[in-house]
Amino acid sequence: MTTPLEKTLKRALTINGRPYVLAISPDGLKLTLKGRRNGFELLWSDLVSGEAALVTALNASVGQFAESLAKPAESTPTKRPRRQGKQATRVGSAGKKRAK
To answer: For the chain, how many structural domains are there in total?
Structure first.
């Protein structure tokens, strides 16, 4: 006897070294990158009606996971602009103010 699917089951898996989460619910299944919200979703009704093949082909052509698979560009540190305005002064060893 099988157990009816009444609530969402989540399972972690690794595909090509990347962590994913598979959520199986009464409505369908959803595969997302771990830590993300958006992913590939497939409804059971689409799977049974045959529209799943069309959806899969469309998502493959668009490349839904293309952005997530690309490595993030390394950011280069930027210099902060110098403060404009009054010139800073320091107190010398003799206790007199002198310009910096």
So the answer is: 1
